UniProtKB/TrEMBL annotation:
GO cellular component: cytosol
Gene from which this protein is expressed: hemB
Family: Belongs to the ALAD family.
Protein name: Delta-aminolevulinic acid dehydratase
GO MF term (any one): zinc ion binding
Amino acid sequence: MSSIITADFPASRPRRNRRDDFSRRLMRENILSVNDFIYPVFVKEGNNLHEPVLSMPGIVRYSPDSILPVAEECVRLGIPVLALFPSIEPSLKTPDGIEATNPEGLIPRVIASLKKEFPELGILCDVALDPYTSHGQDGLIDDSGYVLNEPTVEILVRQALVQAEAGADYVAPSDMMDGRIGAIRQALEAHHFIYTRIMAYSAKYASAFYGPFRDAVGSTVNLGKSDKMTYQIDPANRNEALREVAADIREGADLVMVKPGMPYLDIVRDVKEMFRMPTYAYQVSGEYAMIKAAAINGWLDHDKVMMESLLCFKRAGADGILTYFAIEAAKILQQQK
Ligand code: PBG
């Protein structure tokens, strides 16, 4: 007993504030809200499609019609933004991913129908070529497989313009080419899309946690054994991520993102403190899969771990989270009200 009697104790007894629910609520520093969520969904051509993504239990690919009730549910729950990711028919995939710029393509059609039915729901679209290329890389490649910067940026600009034209509220370049934010910003302004927001995947790491996503959009097979180390950031690096964020802000990003989420909370904190920008974290497919797998095995309490993982993004400094848990978490938040 005497060993814990220090100069501080018992004057300082932190457990006083933790003793009752009212005092825990009174001193709570961060609160998770439905307003923090962006819900990523996969879409594919078809009718009434609910095609399971095997490595992401609970996640399915929707068709342009079956996505509508999901959007309606987001509106009902108060989720502010839906993020669209396409699973493109293999026959439409080419080395240059040009289908990404087709104004009649899957994504522009889905954007237009969602904005028509649910104008109050924000729509975010990924700008990158990997769902559209026959080799699964995010851009055009040369004979050695190296992803070419400027030729890729040219196509990305066209892809972003098509998305803006269809009504996307946010274009979100996830490709990590140099200079793409500036090029897209200039093109949007030149075409009078002055209110289209750019959410830049600024600190995007070359992560193995994207595995299940690549299954979902069907790029795993095409990518084969190659990786994305020549454009995404080395997981070992911190300063490099901050330089990327700085560049994207100078080039015209309205919001910045760190990706993946949970293993990169230090970067979320750094970005928020250094730039004071609207800052988002992407709790990626592999993070979702890990929690689901452990919960299915009975090793973790699903709902508690899900809510804790999301709250910790807020504590780290994120203004919002792209998460496949958005609907499940929003339902829990609604019950708590
Ligand atoms: C495409 C893109 C990826 C993700 C979002 N946009 C995959 C990648 O870069 O290989 C990953 C999302 C997730 O894992 O949930 N550039």
